[in-house]
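Quick start: what a row looks like.
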Amino acid sequence: MDIPGLVEITSQEELREVVPAPLQATADKVRKELHELDKEWLAASPFCLIATSAADGSCDVSPKGDPAGFTKVLDDCTIAIPERAGNRRIDGFLNIVSNPHVGLIYLLPGRGETLRINGRARIIKEAPFFDDMIVKGNRPQLALLVEIEEIFHHCSKAFLRSKLWKTESWNPEAVPSRAEIAKATDRQDADLAELKQYYGPSYEEGIYKVKY
């Protein structure tokens, strides 16, 4: 795409001319093992984002959510994340088969900071700790085991700028409903009334009842 006036950066040296090296304390904050405070954060967090990349470079970021503490700490260098049944695309898991490197961001509702973890992942279909991951009778069929290579806390600037947790800034009606978006994009042949019923209150009621 040709954009008049566009100036692209193509090297690390050019990039550092715009963004100087971080302060030493920032550069040194990366750790390889969980601190007790990291474990407390994981125990309180109900949501994370998992970034993956296939061997060909194609990428995916998938949200994962469960009751707070859904991530199980196996030791100071290893965590496990249950996989609940969804739309069966499993984009991130397919990436991991060819490239085990993952990046995770853990959120805590109301807090601007995040916990970031980078490491190598394995897809597990059975382990003793699966019994500790049962929610509303749903025992996961898969889990992601992550061996930590880097862990650190990230500041709140993005959340402050976006006012993400400021309820007065929320406007969920700014875009059409999920049913309307589905009708316009990926489920054009479906009946809108049926889509609204599908994505209605019963949708939440059934999220732990399904299996792959």
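That is the whole record. The mean pLDDT is 96. The chain has eight helices and seven strands.
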